[in-house]
Amino acid sequence: MTERYLTVTALTKYLKRKFDIDPHLRNVLLKGEISNFNHHSRGHMYFTLKDDKAKIKAAMFSHKNRALKFMPENGMNVLVKGEVSVYEVYGEYQLYVQEMEPDGIGSLYLAYEQLKEELEKKGYFSPTLKKLIPRFPKHIAIITSPNGAAIRDILTTIRRRYPIVNTTIIPAIVQGTEAGKSISHAIQRANDYAAFDLIILGRGGGSIEDLWGFNEKIVAEAIFHSKTPIISAVGHETDHTISDFIADLRAPTPTGAAERAVPSREELHAQISRYQRSMVNIINQLIRNQKEKLNRLTDSYAFRYPNNLIKQKEQELDMLLERINRSQTSLLKEKQVSFQQFFTRFINQHPKKGYNQAIKEQNHLHERLQQSFEKIIKEKELELLNKMDKLILLNPLEVMKRGFAIPYDDAGNMLMSSKKAQIDDHIRVKMSDGALKCQVLEIEVNPDDR
Predict the structure, then answer these.
(1) Closest CA to 221 of 177, 187, 171
(2) Spans of the chain, pLDDT less than 70
(3) pLDDT score recorded for residue 105
């Protein structure tokens, strides 16, 4: 018996009919996380619904998604209603979504948002911390998978635009659980080598799971602490990883990163040509200006009649010299008058003149003082003579010269009263020219003193 072989198309059509007649697949309620979302330019939406262990491709055509009140995106958990059928071209079964409602967000997307918020609060995204991308780099380090399409796009673009720059590929795992550690290690190697003035970090497009290595914190820290400026080019233009926010410059694709890393040779040539044309125009304009200036000078009166001009200038010079001489004479007179006035004030205020005046006043005061002393001495001498005359009149010796005597007892005490003496007392009577020793024979007391 001859075996009958089916074509792939026939088998696919058979399976599709099986799917289409199965009532359980006509009305499927499903929940999962959106991944690989693609909003086609015709309005259709294509994406993958997944959970921890399985995934299924899905499509929601424009006439169905037009009523959605939100825009689906990667990482979003949704509740969908649709039917399962086979897409014959690829022989794959997929879910044709008719209705969709959000059901929170996926775990990876949530982790992405949390890390993004944490790094933003630390200032890792601040534009002021971005390092300047060199305009003409000399040596570029390219961190990516050496076997991917991204490295070919980068190298092709760099060689086409700026072939004189050196490039070094630092291999890194850009997908899977080891991606984060491998990428951060590659960034550290590039900095340790200290030979690069620019780093391109990138890979091609993929799902959020494929790009997750560029969303890990270890990679974010390595980019932030890199001393060499980094251009991040991860996935497609619609993909935004944590690396893109921290890098000094983000490019939408690896090819875009190469275009931003190096200048275009054609553009440089065109720019140099513009500069050359501009420089030639400027030089020509300068030459024209100088020629016009030379022509004006040639046609000027000075060039045509130099002798007349010299005569005129000679006459002007004489006038100026005369004015200068008059000015000098006038100025000299003014200065002489000022000097004479100053000298007169100086002489009047000379210290010697003040000294002589002070000596004169001193002599005058000395003379007045001497006269005062002499007057006081004369007055005191006269006063002294008067007092001496008074003392002479009161001197007991002078009194005794007039016949008076003074008695003293044996003890030498003056007898002021006759009552002080007794009969037979020996007394001494002193006179002006001597003394008498006497004995009291009788005492006579004045009647009035008894």
Answers:
(1) 187
(2) 1-2, 69, 104-108, 110, 449-450
(3) 61
Task: Tell me the C-alpha distance between 196 and 309, whole Å.
Answer: 69
pLDDT tens profile 81-106: 999 999 988 889 999 999 988 786 65
What's the rounded Cα separation, in Å, for the pair 122 and 117? 9
pLDDT (0 to 100) of residue 165: 95
d(CA 78, CA 30): 8
Let me know: does 238 contact 119? Beta carbons within 8 Å: no
Determine the length of the chain.
450
- pLDDT the model gives residue 107: 58
Query: For the chain, what is the radius of gyration of the CA atoms?
Result: 67
Question: Distance between CA 303 and CA 161 in Å, rounded?
Answer: 58
Cα 413 to its chain centre, rounded Å, is 114
What Cα–Cα distance (Å) separates residue 319 from each residue in 13, 291, 301, 315? 119, 36, 22, 6
CB atoms within 10 A of CB 168: 14
d(CA 384, CA 395): 16
Sequential DSSP letters for 212-252: GGGGSHHHHHHHHT-SS-EEEEESSTT---HHHHHSSEE-S
Please tell me the predicted confidence (pLDDT) of residue 104.
Answer: 63
Count Cβ atoms below 10 Å from residue 447 Cβ, excluding itself: 6
Place of tokens 């409602």: 101
Structure tokens at 128: 């002021």
Give the SS3 label for residue 66: coil
> Which of these, 273, 265, 267, 260, lies nearest to 163 by C-alpha position?
265
Cβ atoms of 310 and 303 within 8 Å: the answer is no
What is the SS3 assignment for 20? helix
Q: Is 390 exposed, middle or buried (0-12, 13-18, 19+ CB in 10 A)?
A: exposed
Q: What are phi and psi of 264, to 5 degrees?
A: -85, 130
Distances 374 to 94, 363, 368, 380, 382 between C-alpha atoms, Å? 149, 16, 10, 10, 12
Structure tokens at 194: 């200290």
Which residues make beta-bridge pairs with 102? 78
**Separation CA 338–CA 328 (nearest Å):** 15
Q: SS in 3 state form for 117-152?
A: HHHHHCCCCCHHHCCCCCCCCCEEEEEECCCCHHHH
Chain CA centroid to CA 197, Å: 28
Question: Quick one: which of 372, 414, 38, 62 has its CA closest to 205?
Answer: 38
